[in-house]
Amino acid sequence: MIKTVSPATSLQGTITPPPDKSISQRAAIFSLLHDGVSVIRNYSPAEDPQSALACVELLGAEVTQLDDVVSIKGAGREGIHPMTDELDCGNSGTAMRLLSGLLVGAGTPVKLLGDPSLSARTMTRIIEPLEKMGGYILARNGAYAPLFITREDPLAPMDFELPIPSAQLKSCILLAGLFGETPTRVIETIPSRDHTERLLQLDVKEEGTKKIISASRADKIPNQSYTIPADFSAAAFWLVAGSIVSESELKLEATGLNPTRNALLGILKEMGADITIENERFEGAEPVGDIIVRKSDLKAIDIKKELIPNCIDELPILAVAMAFAEGTSVISGAEELRHKETDRIMAIAKMLDAAGANYEEMNDGLVIRGNPDFSFKSGKFQSFHDHRIAMASAVLSLKGSEDSEIEDAECAAVSYPGFWEDLEILGS
Ligand code: S3P
Fold first, then answer.
1. Ligand 1 nearest atom to the CA of residue 26, by list position
2. The pTM is what?
3. Strand intervals (E) in 91-239
């Protein structure tokens, strides 16, 4: 589907961004492990969380979905019995990596499949440690899905220092660890999103700059009955749109404000954005609030390696903000972006190129020479089948002087099925 996006003179209104993709998938997977019924409110209708839910059902959970309320009768750690020998994770890296850990822990043989984008993403980062824990994983070319997963040896709990700051890898190892007689300890030096340790109430110790998270069979799996917050990573598109489109004022309700996820707020504020937060509260274990953003003049910023995991999914839309900021902005230490739904450094570069922005692509990031008066006529943007690139391109298109086109725009539904409707509502 090609979407035509018209220039916007102002964005106004209040919306609730879609339910959080990371938390929805964890809620489903953790409910499968819980011995009892979890009632999850505001479960995401987006493609990735629906893929995770379908997998959970095929692994032995009883799932009922009525509008946005999902009720899951868990199978418990002892009740994981696949009803099929193949599970389809669709586009979801979170589902594939978390379920791989769970399956090694449970020791139940299953094949995990992904769509072409997911099947092109390396799984080496989970295969190596899971094999150390006793898992056996047969991957295409040793690194790619489909993954045939089983375990013949006894589970070997371990101490594992994360070689990369990845919440998917951390969660994968902890899920396998939950089946061990002794604790598996994951040691994190650069923080990554902490939804898993929060929602599973795992033991977390700080030792200097290190965080040590433990999981074993002794951990009781908590009931997962809560309301999923709105997705901060989806709100990010409106935070930038509201900052760069003239005379804008937007309110984003009930949005997740987890401090390991929301570095973009601080980054945009440092750039000069006019952002305020109201009504801060908790939904289950997660902080949420209403975010208000108004048009402002932005200035350039340098984003360093340590901050990258805390804004990894927001970098495509941050690049758009940088194109309209006064001065030269730099994103560095972000090589990980090349391993997302597509090579996002390349895709961001192509997006900026299609609008004629001034940038330079580096191995591990981008240099963007911004200009508050940057203007372009129109662009033909490729999404590379990547939801975040499609939505970032749409926000950039609002600043053209004529209509722009986004190719393969339907991929926004991977995380934000209502994105195009919300764009229309806020722009009209
Ligand atoms: C996610 C973690 C991040 C993020 C992805 C979702 C998660 O990936 O980019 O969209 O749900 O844990 P990595 O853990 O691989 O950095």
1. 11
2. 0.97
3. 110-113, 135-140, 144-151, 159-161, 184-188, 203-207, 210-215
